[in-house]
Amino acid sequence: MTELRHLQLVIMQIMKDIDDICRRNDIDYYLNGGSAIGAIRHKGFIPWDDDLDIMMTYDNYERFIKACREQLDPQKYYVQEGLKDWPLNYTKIKLIGTCFDEREAYAKEEWQKGIFIDVFKMDNTSSNRLLQFWQYACAKYRVCYLMGKRTYKSANWKKKIFMASAFPQNIGFIRRFFEWQSELYNGKHTEFIASFYESKRFKKCIFRREVFGKPLRVQFEDTMLPVPADYDSYLTTSFGDYMKLPPEEERQLKHLTKIDFGKY
Q: Per-residue pLDDT for 252 more than 90?
């Protein structure tokens, strides 16, 4: 067995425990990004993929964090909650006793570096295109500040400039304003939802709520995992022709630099 395949199988162990938590607590979630492509195109992981991502709406996300803290085995899992246990806006569920060093990560060594699954929150957004873009811009600027402030390391010069541009947010009221604006519609019922923090481009991150709807379970490796109800609209908006394989030179690991499986 290759190291990559070993990693994928360990990630599946984590995913099954997360899925169990979600089922027991009636929490809806969806496979996200490349993980959703893998489910539809490969019925499992994209062969060269080294992670698994899920996403959920704001209300489900809040309930999910609470359920994980109360019901996941604390000897086995570390719930690294976004903005509380580490700087960015999404949560990582990490397997204790393992190590997964990412290509771009935070320089602080005290953060748990276990094999993980990323959990992204989708935010409610306006039906007005200009207000959607404003909220998107606020969310992106907020990410700049968080990444720049908390010793994020990147070799990408564009990211370094992007992060450095956020220095005015060090002024407290400016920072709080952007935080408020980026989550302005959460707790309200809206026609549109957005994955502002996960997607790089505005056109690829805004969706009608019904695109997600009731999760549709499809085959993923040796189990069934949920994708958006209208997964074709979601994946086409996000990736274009998602059934087409990328050029061979692009079929590379995205995150992994060093790994330790521990007892797993």
A: no
Whose CA is closest to 197, among 236, 156, 124, 139? 139
- Domain positions in the chain: 3-260
CB 214 within 8 A of CB 28: yes
Ramachandran angles phi, psi of 125, nearest 5°: -145, 165
Whether the pLDDT of residue 207 is over 60: the answer is yes
Q: In the structure encoding, which two tokens stand for residue 226, read together?
A: 């949920």
CB 206 within 8 A of CB 142: no
User: C-alpha dihedral over 62, 185, 235, 88, to 10 degrees?
Assistant: -50
42-52 mean pLDDT = 96
Q: Residue 231: what pLDDT?
A: 98
Q: Is the pLDDT of residue 56 over 80?
A: yes
The rounded distance, in Å, linking the Cα atoms of 36 and 234 is 9
Residue type (1 letter), 82:
G
- Tell me the per-residue pLDDT of 126-165, one tens digit each, with 9 for 90 and over: 999 999 999 988 888 777 766 655 444 544 545 555 545 5
Q: Using CA atoms, how far apart are residues 60 and 171, in angstroms rounded to an integer?
A: 32
Residue 22 CB burial class (10 angstroms; 0-12, 13-18, ≥19): buried
**What single-letter amino acid sits at 58?**
Y
Whole-angstrom Cα distance, residue 159 to residue 161?
5
Check: CB of residue 27 under 8 Å from CB of residue 46. Answer: no
Query: Residue 222: which of 4, 11, 1 has the closest Cα?
Result: 11
| Span 163-191, pLDDT tens digits | 455 455 555 566 677 778 878 899 888 99
* Phi, psi dihedrals of residue 122, rounded to the nearest 5°: -90, 135
Which residues sit opposite 53 in a β-bridge? 118
